[in-house]
Amino acid sequence: MREIKFRAWDSINKIWIDPFKLILMRCGSVQSVESLDGEIYGTHQVFLNQYTGLKDRNGKEIYEGDVLRGYGSAIKRFVVSFSNGSFVLYHNFGRWGLLSRIFEIEELPVEIIGNLYENPELLNQ
After folding, report:
1. Looking at residue 27, which CATH number applies to its domain?
2. pLDDT by residue (tens digit) across 115-125?
3. 1 lies in a domain?
């Protein structure tokens, strides 16, 4: 069973909000994010990234929005996203393949090299 956890990026102040709690509406969707110091962030300001349950070859947790470097493949750079109930790897705006439990070995053949928020230039390389 995968641990469910998130990280939150404040797109206005360009910082990670950690730790935080989610404030939900009755229907279950996220209304806002609150940091432990009481700061409230609206959903227009915050990007939530879910943990995939997997780690890269260095033991670092892989989240949505992470940019990965692949090994042993002609394709060297991927972005992690959540689509249709599973985590997927995207390359050049196309779906490359599933980031699934199949890859949960001691070391994945990928390494996190950044994320979409702090390192958007990685997508242009």
Report:
1. 2.30.30.290
2. 999 998 887 76
3. no
